Amino acid sequence: MRLHRLDITAFGPFGGAQSVDFDALSAAGLFLLHGPTGAGKTSVLDAVCYALYGSVPGARQGGQGTHLRSDHADPGTRTEVRLELTVAGRRLEITRQPPWERPKKRGTGTTLDKAQTWLREYDAVRGAWKDLSRSHNEIGEEITQLLGMSREQFCQVVLLPQGDFARFLRADAEARGKLLGRLFDTQRFADVEKRLAERRRATEARVREGDTALLADAHRMQQAAGDAMELPDLAPGDPGLAVAVLAAAAVARGTARERLTIAHCGLTAAESAHTRAQEELAEGRELARLQHRFTEAQDRAARLAERAGEYEETRARMERGRKAETVAPALELREDAEHAHRRAALAEANARRALPEDQADSGAPGLAAAARRATEELGGLASARRAEHRLTELLAERDGLDREERADEHALREADAWLDGWEPARAALQTRIESAQEAASRAESLAVRRDPARRRLDAARRRDRLTSDVAAAERRALDSGQRAQKLREDWLDLKEQRLTGIAAELAAHLTDGAPCAVCGATEHPAPARKDAGHVDREAEQHAFDEHQKAQREHDEHKQHDTGLRADLKAVTAEVGDTPVDRIAAEVTELEQEFEQARRDASVLHAAREELRRAETERDQRLQSRQQSAVRAAARLTRRDTLEREQVTLEAELTRARGTADSVAARATQLERLAAVLTEAADAARAAEEAAVRLKKADARLSDAAYRAGFDTPAAAAGALLDSATHRALQHRLDERQSEESAVRAVLAEPETVAASRQAPADLALAGERAAGAERRLREAASARDEAVRRTTELDRLSARAEDGARRLAPLREEYDRVARLAALAAGTSADNERRMRLESYVLAARLEQVAAAATARLRLMSAGRYTLVHSDDRSGRGRSGLGLHVVDAWTGRERDTATLSGGETFFASLALALGLADVVTDEAGGVRLDTLFIDEGFGSLDDQTLDEVLDVLDSLRERDRSVGIVSHVGDLRRRIHAQLEVVKDRTGSSLRRRGT
Description:
996 residues, 6-stranded antiparallel sheet, 6-stranded mixed sheet, single chain, alpha+beta, 68% helix
């Protein structure tokens, strides 16, 4: 890679446009970039880095590129960096513009332009530049691929920061590892270490989880086994835990089975004793029962003897009742006959009271004959009844014809009156329909005009509101602009004060023996002192932040004001300057007209329906009038027919009624008379028959009582028992006989008689013995059940523990294997004798290459005295792998690089930087680096060493390289003729080329 030209505009401290011709500077091989502190020497290198990668190194990058803009630049000048270079045989031009907050072209305020990037390539055949891309991502990928380096690698290889490599020489292994890891991208090896550690932790967690479950089962087995099991004194994850748990479980199972055998024997003995005790208790209870049975039978026999007289009396009463039962049917028959006779006599008396006087004393035959005569006369009135019913229907029909005639006359008069007013009503309805149609057309026209009028009124009101908002926004923008301008002036004053006292700020960080960050000297005889009004970086940054905050607030206010003005302009163009009141009055008047037209048009449908109904009614009334004329002619004919039939029926009814008011009344009289006569005749016959049956029942009852042995029927009736009394007496007799039989049977039982001759049974003693035997049986059964439960539970838990141990075995093997690999990669394993991590091992190989490449130049710079070597020895209790020692040829001893002096440290770090550049270049694919920059550190060298170092740098020209030295050491300006000077003043820095 070779740089040709760099153009800078409004970048960093450079307020205007500056150009660097690297071809002219590189002609001498070595060139010097110098200038006072803070002038912007490093900013030139930042511009190269920004052109290539779109960002600058370290903490100087921020704000998405907005902080790269020079504070000295004119507001209308955009920040831009253009770099022309040759890489991989291609001549390219890269132009980058960071985001720019510029003034608006129209109105006030600012607007933010996005970052832009261009990539062009020179076409030698055509002799012109051609565009390749304007995409940030594509250009970034293209440059990174061509260079083969990231931004961090480029800054370490091309822009050699000597202070970093001096610290690298004195740093410990961890610090060296971080730097080398960024340069050689060994993150994948660190990821391997991390992945192994994660797998170890995950596998260990799973093993611990399995061991925890196994220990939990062991605790459950201990609870089940009681004191027959001891747990191993091991924690989850300890080796041998599964074996110890299974061994303890086996011992517990054996003990539990022995206890189960003992419990079975105890239960068998308790069952035998319990059986004997129960048999003895049953025998005692049986003896007591038989003795009690015999005593109770004797008592029952005595009670039976005492009630013998009562028994004989009951038996005699039952015998008389059985004889009276033979007379019971005759008694019942006689009683029924007497009741029937009384009912018949009463019915006859009641029937005779309703008879006419001339029939009151007649007998049953006379009454029956009179009833037949009345019935025959009633039958002759059937024809008269039909004539009377027909006459009633005829009169009703005539009344209906009269009503129908009156209704037709009324309807005819109403129809004539309605039809007389038909034409005026139809004309009025037609007029209403036409008016409603006109109103509907007018409402549609007004609706079209209403919506635009409403929008015009809303726009006028919004115009008035925006007018007020614009005035308020102008006031806010003016106030915030004044405040931002005042804060900017305050910040520039503080910045000027800080730049004036920057030497004191730098001197505050100096320590004895440490090189100066500016000149590199390790002695500081007269450092600058801070005065009372010194402004530090924090105060300046605070003022700058306040200025930026106020500027952003001012920009927001201006942007808001511009937006409001645009909205006001658009609304004013739409509605003009017409006042809101006038537009509102027009809208109101239009709304009223529309509502009135809509109300007038709303009756259109009703008017049409009313006209349709009126036309329908007219047709119906015409038809009804015609039907009335037809019905009138029919009624006249029907009325004549009915009158003739009425005369005939009335003559027939006069003959049939006689003295009654009507045929129905005469028929009712005859029906009532026939019914009374018939009822009286039936009652008289029933009374005569009942008297005959009563006489026969008396004779049959007297004969039955005599045959049954009773003197009179009354005595037989008194001896007769009802069913309840009979059942009660029979029950007493049956109980007596049953009791006598039961007592005789008990007193005749041999076992009962034998038991009565023995001594009384002692049930209390037998019960106590049986209860004790039962208690011992329950205790033995509980012990047996507990032993069975313990054995079963131990077998179940042991099987689960064995299954868990089998499943855990492959996982534990995996954990042991992963743990060994993780410890080996992390450098904590005993097999890793030097405790070297995997990433450190890879970096150690790279460091060996860097040390070998650096030694070739370090020998020239030190006149063959020093050689850099890589060391993998451990320092104290730390890890090994990234040690760096220097071999002193004068003493033949190897020592740490931290023992080098300031000047020795500089050229050693320079050699290290050049060697690292070679290794990284080879790592990046062998891209040739024809332009290098070395930043500071030459002030710590004496004249002879400086000559030797410059000779080494000058030897780089043999490979057609150019080296730029960034320093403000005065002696270098005399030794190096090609120079690029950075000059600073209050208006910004500028570049000046000399000696080319």
